[in-house]
Design brief:
Largest sheet: 5 strands, antiparallel
Number of helices: 9
Strand content: 25-35%
Number of strands: 35
Helix content: 25-40%
């Protein structure tokens, strides 16, 4: 392209010069010839501009071609204006950059048009317009690998923000929203850069999550009789795998068992009252006869009197007990019948009720993409207004409904995803004090808690199977599990705080101490981060009150002598590197403490120092590393290759 433009420029300049000479000797106007010369200058400027830019591209191609052996591949180069970058996942990331190439061609085409016109005024107009015109680029998004090689790029668009939503790569697939010249569209892309599915964005369709090679999507159906969101799964080509379905989150009431109206016991009670009256008359008659008795009064007489009295009492007790029994039975029957009447009224009213289903509002503040979560084995967590539902897309059923309430049992947190049909969860249940007292259970400990927490196994049909409920699950886990402290590699660091001192130990999921640091007890303050692939960051406060860092393995062995001098330090999530940050500098160490890469840039910020807290909080300026690549504002650093990718005009990168 550069050679073509230079040739056009030379030809145009020659024609213009000849035209000026001929018209000058004939004493005619030379405006047309000057216009051609001006156009030739404009085209040459364009060629020179492309040359400068291509030089950077060629340098990038040469650098990376040595790795791939591909000379015609396209790469992100230093001179590209990269504006948006995403973190790497499965060695793939998206970038947005400004592309001037189509503008260059347009300017050259207009220059040739100016040269070939017969209208001298138009020649001059085109020449003056394009000599003073600055190239204006458009935006593209591209999928790149960890070398900066462009695997796919979008059409050129003048929209400023072209990448409005993006997922990470899982199982070689990702989805994103591209805002192009024809509007926004959902796209599924594979790791080779093939767009496998495209759908125009609308208020009635959305991607929610993906995993296992499938994508969870929702479609809003609105018609004369229907207004509901239906959820299903599609594959990478957009073919439906789990049929779209509305998932109910309120269930219809079952018809209550019939209860007969109780029979009034008045007649039965009256018979008992009559029998009691008759018994009283008999006894009175016997008493009177006893007073008139004038025979011998001996032991046999007293025995007979006692037996007769006992017989009267037994008959009275039987009648009285029967009367009480009838009254109590009737009261129970009345209560049961009244409850049945209430239930049947509610059932009949509910039969006219339309069940509530899972719904979404794309205009709300909810970030459904981040709130939805793939839990494995085709099970998803989907957000609700005040809680979440667990959907099994294999059985196409809601297997668990969870409302954030102290009065309702619910899943507090997933400890693990689903594997071999089960997941481990922290389950929250309100304590039933009355039932505990009825069961003669010790309720002293429960008086301090409103809810009981237990570790449970959850099956893919929603069955909850308790594993253990004790002080570990009730007092420790609910207070320590969060985004910073979580189980990794089966272990959780639990800090112990006493005043300004912080220490702690690692526990396994059963609440057993798995790793402790007795050598520091009573001597040093320390804190540990989660384990990643067998390694964790450890912070130690030295005698000089400075905070030192090192890496430990699961035996507690330090991988290098503790170091200091940085304001924030954290492990990469693959457990291979330490990222250490201070003002305008980021240094990467391997797990043995050897420096791998040092990056100086005004883009690099940090907080006011590395501190040990009872719950470690890293800097808000945290620089994540994925697949051995660190993302900065408008460039990457590939740690393994010791190479920068993108626009690094204000960065000094040292390797």
């Amino acid at each position: 392209m550069k050679l073509i433009l230079v040739l056009i420029s030379l030809i145009t300049f020659t024609l213009g010069l000849i035209k000026v000479i001929i018209r000058g000797t004939r004493k005619k106007t030379v405006k047309g010839g000057l216009a051609l010369i001006g156009v030739s200058v404009a085209i040459y400027i364009v060629a020179a501009f492309m040359s400068g830019r291509k030089e950077g591209e060629n340098e990038g191609a040469k650098r990376s071609a040595n790795t791939y052996g591909i000379q015609n591949a396209e790469y992100i180069t230093d001179d590209m204006q990269v504006e948006t970058l995403t973190d790497f996942s499965e060695e793939r990331a998206f970038v947005q950059f400004t592309d001037y190439s189509e503008e260059d061609l347009e300017m050259a085409e207009d220059g040739v048009r100016a040269m070939l016109t017969d209208d001298e005024d138009e020649e001059a107009q085109y020449a003056m317009e394009y000599i003073g015109r600055e190239p204006q680029g458009g935006n593209r998004i591209a999928l790149i690998d960890t070398q900066g090689k462009i695997l796919w790029k979008s059409d050129r668009t003048l929209n400023d923000q072209t990448l409005t939503e993006i997922s990470e790569f899982k199982d070689g697939l990702a989805y994103f929203i591209f805002d192009g010249n024809e509007g926004e569209s959902y796209n599924i892309i594979d790791s080779e850069g093939n767009i496998t599915y495209t759908k125009e964005c609308s208020e009635d369709f959305m991607f929610l999550s993906h995993g296992g090679g499938l994508f969870l999507v929702a479609e809003h159906i609105v018609s004369l009789d229907v207004d509901e969101w239906r959820i299903g799964t599609i594959d990478k080509n957009g073919d439906i795998v789990a049929e779209y379905k509305a998932y109910e989150i309120t269930t219809s009431k079952e018809e209550p068992l019939s209860v007969n109206e109780p029979v009034d016991p008045a007649s039965s009670l009256q018979k008992i009252d009559d029998a009691l009256s008759q018994l009283a008359e008999e006894r009175q008659k016997w008493v009177e006869e006893s007073w008139e008795y004038d025979g011998e009064i001996d032991e046999e007489y007293y025995r007979m009197i006692e037996e007769t009295e006992m017989e009267f009492q037994n008959r009275y007790d039987e009648l009285t007990e029967r009367k009480i029994q009838i009254q109590e039975q009737y009261a129970v029957q009345v209560e049961e019948y009244q409850e049945y009447q209430t239930e049947i009224e509610e059932y009949e009213a509910d039969s006219q009720h339309i069940p509530e289903t899972i719904a979404f509002d794309k205009n709300s503040s909810h970030d459904y993409q981040s709130l939805c979560e793939y839990l494995g084995e085709n099970v998803y967590r989907v957000p609700l207004e005040n809680g979440f539902a667990i959907l099994n897309l294999d059985s196409q059923s809601v297997i668990s409904l969870n409302t954030y309430s102290e009065n309702t049992a619910h899943i507090e947190q997933f400890i693990t995803g689903f594997d071999n049909g089960t997941a481990t969860v922290l389950y929250n249940e309100p304590i039933d004090m009355e039932k505990m007292e009825e069961d003669n259970m010790d309720v002293d400990w429960a008086t301090f808690l409103k809810n009981s927490y237990s570790l449970c196994r959850m099956e893919t049909d929603g069955t909850i199977i308790p594993i253990v409920s004790n002080s570990w699950t009730n007092y420790v886990l609910p207070n320590i599990l969060n985004g910073e402290n979580e189980f990794q590699d089966g272990l959780l660091f639990v800090p112990y705080s006493g005043g300004d001192d912080t220490t702690g130990v690692y526990y396994n999921i059963d609440g057993e101490v798995a790793l402790e640091f007795s050598e520091y007890n009573g001597k040093s303050v320390y804190f540990c981060d989660p384990f990643y692939n067998g390694y964790a960051l450890m912070l130690i406060q030295g005698a000089d009150q400075l905070t030192y860092f090192t890496v430990i393995d699961k035996s507690g062995k330090q991988q290098f002598e503790p170091q200091t001098g940085f304001e924030d330090v954290y492990m990469s999530r693959d457990g291979k590197y330490l990222i250490a940050v201070k003002w305008h500098n980021l240094t990467v160490f391997d797990i043995t403490g050897n420096e791998v890469v040092s990056v100086d840039s005004e883009q690099i910020s940090s907080d006011d120092g590395l501190h040990i807290r009872s719950q470690q909080i890293h800097s808000e300026h945290r620089y994540e590393m994925g697949d051995g690549v660190i993302r900065f504002r408008n460039f990457y650093v590939n740690v393994m290759e010791k190479a920068a990718i993108g626009s690094k005009y204000d960065a000094k990168v040292e390797f």
